[in-house]
Write a structure and sequence with these properties.
This protein is mainly beta and 147 residues long. It has one helix and seven strands, in the order βββββββα. Strand 6 and strand 7 (106-109) form a beta hairpin. The longest helix is centred in the last third of the chain and has 11 residues, at 111-121. The two termini are 32 Å apart.
């Protein structure tokens, strides 16, 4: 799983309250590490997403997507309206672990969050079957199998 990337020279809009997906003043938005269309990224979504019941399983999820820029820095990329099957919240982030410079569209994450994010995106830490390939058979001279 790769993190979504944005070229350094790209000019990106900021997540302003004028955006239809910004959530307005009534919805509290929280940051989370999420899997979106198979990629792990930083998102900002309505915090009630964690507490919604089954009847909301078919309603679209409004998200602000942030792209990893450098070490602990993420920059606002784009708004997204996602089908619930296309997003999976991996971890809600504590507000003490996030420094949001909304006017610049920049978010800084604490190093411990970055360590967890690295584990989520590094195939060596993955829990899937591809993470633990079967050992290759070794052969001695003459073609005899040793293991």
């Amino acid at each position: 799983m790769a993190m979504a990337a944005v070229p350094a020279h790209a000019t990106l809009p900021s997540p302003s309250s004028s955006s239809p997906l910004a959530g307005g003043a009534t919805a509290q938005r929280k940051f989370a590490l999420a899997q979106v269309h198979g990629d792990v990224c930083l998102v900002q979504v309505c915090s009630s997403l964690a507490h919604e019941s089954c009847h909301a399983a078919l309603s679209a999820v409004e998200a602000q997507i942030y792209a990893h820029e450098f070490i602990t820095i993420f920059r606002y990329s784009h708004p997204a309206l996602l089908h619930p099957a296309d997003i999976r919240i991996l971890e809600w982030l504590d507000e003490r672990s996030v420094l949001d410079e909304a006017d610049k569209g920049t978010v800084f994450l604490a190093r411990d969050v970055m360590d967890r994010l690295r584990r989520l995106t590094d195939r060596r830490w993955s829990l899937g079957p591809a993470a633990h390939p079967r050992p290759r058979a070794t052969y001695a001279r003459g073609g005899r199998r040793m293991s």
